[in-house]
Design a protein that fits this description.
Largest sheet: 6 strands, mixed
Order of helices and strands: EEEHHEEEEEEEHEEEHHHHEHEH
Radius of gyration: 21 Å
Strand order of the largest sheet: 3-2-1-4-8-7
Oligomer: single chain
Structural class: alpha/beta
CATH superfamily of the largest domain: 2-keto-3-deoxy-galactonokinase, substrate binding domain
CATH class of the largest domain: Alpha Beta
Distance between the termini: 28 Å
CATH architecture of the largest domain: 2-Layer Sandwich
Length: 335
Amino acid sequence: MPSGFGRRACRPTNDCLMEECIISVDWGTSNLRLRLLDCNTGKNYAEVNAPAGIKQTFQNWQVSHEPREIFYSRVLHTQIELLAKQANRMIEPWPIIISGMASASIGMREVSYSPLPFVLDNLSPNIDMISASPTFGHDIILISGLETIGDVMRGEEMQTVGWWLSYGNKNSNTTLILPGTHSKHMHIREGVVVGFKTYMTGELFQIVSEYSILANDVQPKVLEQDYDVVRKGARDVQLEPLSHLLFSIRGRRLQNKFTEQQCSAYLSGLLIGSEFRQFKGGNITLCADEKFASMYLVVINALNLSDFCQVVDKDKVSLFVPTAHLALFKSLAQT
């Protein structure tokens, strides 16, 4: 392993509390997002987003003939330079804390999953640390994901921690819904993640609408005027098999029962509605950005779940990961 990239058994020391800033990194499959955070106030001085997700970075590394951690650190360095321009200030060798796919098998370094139950107050996921080197002057803290039987996640656990720190109530039980390419339903009981389920909702929509027999029938954009069709799809999938209903989109289009936009609306209703087929009641907390919030609310309303649903302000959702990163960094520094 290259010099400067050894495993460190130690955690940040109290000296880290003197740091002015940290760099919060959310490194997903498709995108890379960096934020420069004030350690004391939590102020976000600047942020950059790039389509430099782990999947593409891994593919690029495979043909690079360069040590993996050095290659990935160069990707980070490029974005840190952009962050400095955005902040209009020099970026000191402040620590970097990364969640998401950077700790996966195709990431910067694999970190084993943390098991359930996961206590949100404890801020104790598995972590690994990569020391600063002469070519990359930042210490890196890699955060693992969570696992349960037959299911895993990386990244959403920090969203959940950030939500808990912002809105959590130890006396409440809820299912926190995190829509996305792989939608997560986090089962939380008195501040503890006791289970979760992953639904390939976003990915299935892409596959069906771009690569299946329905590719020529589905117009990706769903119009508000077609929300009734979304509701129909959500209700239908509670009663009939999803596979059959997917093919029915083809039949309805050939019979001129649906427009292309309505095909998309029905497909959205089917896939989102299927997440709730085995929902056994209880409280729901929808934690979705603007891209997903309206569609999930349409489905929740169609299934008569609105009275049990709390909706997180969509403008606050993007703040949960940096909130969790900052809290976790301070917690590590104090132990």
